[in-house]
Amino acid sequence: MSLLGMVGGLLDAGVRFVVIGGLAMRAHGSAHLTEDLEVCYDPAPDNVERLAGTLADWHAYLRGVEPDLPFVMDARTVRTSPVMTLITDHGAIDLMDEVAGVGAYEAVVAESVETSAQGRRFRALSLPGLIRAKRASARPKDLAQLPEL
Which of 31, 72, 78, 105 is 20 to 30 Å from the Cα of 95, by its Cα? Predict the structure, then answer.
């Protein structure tokens, strides 16, 4: 499954989220290629249940952690981990309940735009929001992307 396929899977499950990071950059015309889907999700209990259920169906597991360690993908895991980097049957996904430089989910939604790809409509962080987020993270790879943005 492609990154856009993962977006479609989240949409089909009724998950409320905003695409951030590399795919959001692509939505604004960037040439940046990314291999993971980064999303900021609504932390409301009903949404966390749908998100966790979808990720459990995708056999989500912590990325960068040795295999076969005990890990349960459920709503409790999502609620208690504000940032998670996961690998799934469909690819890598990063989850955040807020974005540095932008704020919590409600602020991220307010700083997002509706976009579409492959016939699917979804929300992506706006260009000014991406720039603020990249500056706030201050990671070398994010700062290196600022000139293009």
Answer: 31
